[in-house]
Design brief:
It is a single chain. 62% of the residues lie in helices and 0% in strands. The longest helix is centred in the middle third of the chain and has 24 residues.
């Protein structure tokens, strides 16, 4: 999908230097993948402490069902 974007050239140049990618397209794709991964990790961390654990649960017993 072709998309035209107006990206700050200084940011793109810095990202290109830091990413070790050879093209601007690869740099932007890598940045987007890392952005998505970071947001997904934050969502998992937000769930921490949200679950009620059952201390009585015997996972070994469940294997024999």
């Amino acid at each position: 999908m072709a998309t035209n974007l107006s990206i700050d050239p200084d940011l793109l140049d810095k990202a290109l230097d830091l990413s070790d990618e050879k093209t601007k397209k690869a740099t932007v794709n890598k940045a987007l993948r890392e952005f998505i991964a970071r947001r997904e990790q934050e969502r998992v961390l937000d769930l921490f402490g949200e679950f009620d654990w059952d201390d009585e649960f015997d996972y070994k017993q469940e294997r024999t069902r």
